[in-house]
Write a sequence for this structure.
């Protein structure tokens, strides 16, 4: 499957490139994140990002198509990750895959046991880039 086109904010890209530079670049999550940053079609200012695009610290509602299960996830930096609270690290496979997605797009999510799940982005419930919350 071809990955969907993505839009990223320049601020997110700058911060994520700093994060990548601070980590061991052989870690699988680092490689996946760099791949996502490299394939961004559009870079915009944080005040120009459409409200239906996933940015860092966005809370999203997505559905796993096979089971119909809904997930409410927040895309965070590794230090803030907490699976019990639905806070998913940008370095997790689903985290880097969600970054830059637009409502209605879907991603393949590598699941444990070698299965691939299809996640569809239903809603960006909150997007700090649009609301001025730029915490790292």
């Amino acid at each position: 499957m071809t990955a969907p086109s993505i839009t990223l904010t320049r601020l997110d890209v700058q911060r994520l490139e700093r994060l990548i530079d601070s980590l061991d670049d052989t870690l699988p999550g680092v490689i996946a994140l760099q791949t996502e940053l490299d394939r961004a079609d559009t870079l915009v200012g944080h005040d120009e990002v459409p409200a239906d695009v996933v940015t860092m610290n966005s809370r999203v509602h997505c559905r796993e198509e096979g089971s119909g299960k809904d997930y409410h996830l927040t895309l965070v930096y590794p230090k803030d990750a907490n699976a019990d609270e639905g806070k998913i690290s940008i370095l997790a496979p689903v985290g880097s895959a969600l970054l830059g997605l637009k409502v209605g797009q879907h991603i393949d999510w590598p699941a444990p046991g070698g299965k691939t799940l299809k996640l569809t982005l239903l809603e960006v419930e909150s997007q700090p880039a649009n609301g001025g919350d730029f915490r790292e």
